[in-house]
Amino acid sequence: ILEPEAAKAFELKTGKILDxxxxxxxxxxxSSYVSPDRVIKSSxxxxxxxxxxxxxxxxxxxxxxxxxxxxxxxxSDFIALPSNEYQAxxxxxxxxxxxxxxxxxxxxxxxxxxxxxxxxxxxxFDIEALIEDAKAVExxxxxxxxxxxxxxxxx
Length: 155
Description:
Blueprint lengths: L2 H12 L4 E2 L3 E2 L7 E2 L3 E4 L5 E8 L3 H13 L12 H14 L5 E7 L8 E7 H31 L1
Parallel strand pairs: 5-6
Antiparallel strand pairs: 1-4, 2-3, 4-5, 6-7
């Protein structure tokens, strides 16, 4: 319900023009995909920036705000994400779109004054090792599924 409002607030704050999201399927397996809420298209048509909008509970909004306040200068906003809920989703964006350089994780609320809009900027460069590790694990998993399918076909 609040997603369009959040997208507009992001545009006003950043000056970036958002287009509607689309489904991205990976080059290595079409069953590996993500669907960004909004994208920012480059002049060459490639999508190097995407936006994921989260309208979370007040508790989660405050937790993310607090985690970001505790960060040391130069640390990636990635570490402020609630780990078991969203970090895998963030990594998946970069796994599926090799052109993606920056994901803006937008946290929006209409319940907490002065915390209506938080923008976490997550850069590929900051989490490259995590992306490569996750991709390797997914590739092994997909290969195992492929082998299992072939065994079942032979039965």
